[in-house]
Amino acid sequence: MKMNEWTAICRVEDIPVLGSRRVARPRGTDVAVFRNDRDQVFALLDRCPHKGGPLSQGIVFGTSVACPLHNWTIGLDDGCANAPDQGCAQRFSVKVENGAVFLSVLELASLATDAP
Amino acid sequence: MKRSRLVMVGNGMAGVRTIEELLKIAPELYEITVFGAEPHPNYNRILLSPVLAGEQTLDEIVLNSWEWYRDNRITLHAGKKVVEVDRVRRVVRAEDGTEEEYDRLLLCTGSNPFILPVPGKDLPGVIAYRDIADTNAMIEASRKYKKAVVIGGGLLGLEAANGLMLRGMAVTVVHVMPWLMERQLDDVAGKLLQKSLEDRGLKFMIGAHTQELVAGPAGRVQAVKFKDGTVVDADLVVMAVGIRPNTELAEEMKLHVNRGIVVHDTMQTVTDARIYSVGECAAHRGIAYGLVAPLFEQAKVAANHLAQFGIGRYSGSLTSTKLKVTGIDLFSCGDFMGAASAGTEEIVMSDPFGGVYKKLVIKDDKLVGACLYGDTVDGSWYFKLLREGRNVGDIRDKLMFGESSLGDSGHEGHTKAASMPADAEVCGCNGVNKGAICKAIKEKGLFTVDEVRKHTKASASCGSCTGLVEQILMATAGGDYSAAPKKKAMCGCTDHSHQEVRDAIRTHKLLTIADTFSFMEWRTPNGCASCRPAVNYYLISTWPKQAKDDPQSRYINERSHANIQKDGTYSVIPRMWGGETTANELRRIADVVDKYQVPTVKVTGGQRIDLLGVKKEDLPGVWHDLGMPSGHAYAKALRTVKTCVGSEWCRFGTQDSTQMGKDLERALWRMYAPHKVKLAVSGCPRNCAEAGIKDVGVIGVDSGWEIYVAGNGGIKTEVAQFLCKLKSAAEVLEYSGAFLQLYREEGWYLERTVHYVNRVGLDYVKKKILDDPEGRKALWERLQFSLDGEPDPWFEFDKARVDMRQFGKLAVEQEA
After folding, report:
1. Most buried one in B31, B128, B445, B760, CB count within 10 A?
2. pLDDT at residue B529 above 80?
């Protein structure tokens, strides 16, 4: 495995505007990739820091997503819950080049791979 | 870039809250300087009474420590009273000569106690009750002297009297009006309060006019002399006859002053736009508020403008009074005197021996005032009814017995927070006990029910424990924290209410979410998780076939057409018309359970079968293999029509309820609504289908069908109300459909039929459905038009705009 490389996941238009897609990994919880209305793409572990809800299923607005289980608002850029709620979802680096979305090979293989 | 200079005059609760709000949204914008006349950092003035009573210490009531000012790089001139402001040079000067220049000035000078202009008012031993120095003077006096007279039987006076008595003094309260706290209580409640305080040892002189304060040989006050010649000994006299906005400095500065410093909705003074004023000194639309919650609202607006966002507006607050004299519960709001104004009626419950008194004032079928003594748990509910101007005609007979008489659950019937142990559950929805709420209030310095809700989640779900949470807040943080804006904004993205948004969409024919947001000047680019689903519903319900549904603005259940569970799997409930099924359907269900290894199969309350634990990627396969229509058990839409077996089999049945139920369900399925909608049809008055707690309940009788509407079996069990009796099945369809279409067109998002009907009144619904046949037919036709050709989302994916990409996962390519 080439650890300092990026791997192509999909095209930006494969992600719905104000929506998300789930990315399956060989090991560990899925990663959710989000797209907002300015075509910015973000990636977070698909697991709310509150009770583990799948963030990929939430409503995306601005640069936030509302968790579908208990409506915590999670920042897409840092993965952290809006105050006064506390906790952060693991964030993943994203690169967008010529309309293609890339995630880091190293991060996919090493971050939160044993999360329950 | 050089920062602008913000100078604040007055270091009290409203002003410092403004700075806190400002630092939250624009931390780098200003160099901030604060002048405070008192040599203390900002403290909670409301808690001076518990300090006087010895229940708390001064350290405990400090809200912002010296370190807070330092950490936020705020220059604090404590103990320096500002005596002059030069508005041309923009310079503030304090008594000791300290000068600061400003670009923006915030005046928060608060209020001053009103001192009776009687001879002897300046004698040693005569004090007002306003700040830490006064409190210390009283504590000091209580150590040396025995006899105190408190002039003023309002909240402040009674708290002072109570505190001095607890510190061992013999206290007489002098009150010029005919009963205590006449601005918050009616005569009966005022007299009950007096009796209860007398039992504790306070003495009262009601209706007594103070003439003179008499000095003793040492020059200190020795007695109070009254107009009728009576003389009462006193070593300490506390003046607590009221407060006046402190506008001395503002007047010097030539700002317009009228019962306070006059400000616009932006909290800028009308005279000078560089100068803002919030708190007790500010007069907004003629009112200077003295309660914390409105002042904090003002603080938010002022901060917003200081931060150059320029979008917040303060439009005034309705306030209620809850008073804290330890162990005595009082509540009042609105026009609690009643009889004084024309056209009002009163409902009174009085139990003087039990120490409970309640009076509700009603005008034109609306609650306009309430005064409660001894049992105040329903205060917040009454205040809500008053604020919303809800028609109470239909619940008039139950009104006095409180919200719990309308069905209530989740907190074991507790009504008095004070008597609850710390481990007692307050919020049954979110499992929050009293101890956790008290802890959060103390540690995080919470002031409002909203803040408690955010931090603890107590009362955040069904809201039935709001009254208890308020009581706990009051007992823990002191004073009164309830106030609410006159109209409720839809969410933080806008100041518009649900009704205003609905109206605008109809009047201006708005067809998309983006158009609605731009027309109504939304503050956020694409709303939030609460306003987007609401606006999406308003668009498609107002302009069927024209406005396009936006799946990304729907909650996940309506986007994936299944119900998300706590572990991220989904539940699938296929439609079974009227609760009837067949061997073929059951076989297919069994096959699906085997093939997709569905962990749990459960019969629902709505006479259907629930498959729980289906993986998202399996949903399209499950739907296909079931070959049954979507049950919409996940949607704000028609769920189920529950039926009994009816005349076809039942020996008591008078009507074919199953067929009626199936016909209703086929006519109404795929109907989106503000909230979920449940129907039931029973074939006789034994009502085995439980039609009495459904949005529309139909009960067969020998001569036809009875229609009931707006029932609910949820958080508060609400029995459906009789609408009409009909002869034929066709009429049942038309009347039920018309009622539901009325609700679809006028209900606010997430408002169940019971709440909608409560808001508009059953009489209004009857007028629309029963008295206006043309209107009824038109409603029924509009509903049929809306539903005509609507797709089944489990099969017609394109037409239902189901994004199939959501069911699959993207893969990370494996390296060889």
Report:
1. B128
2. yes
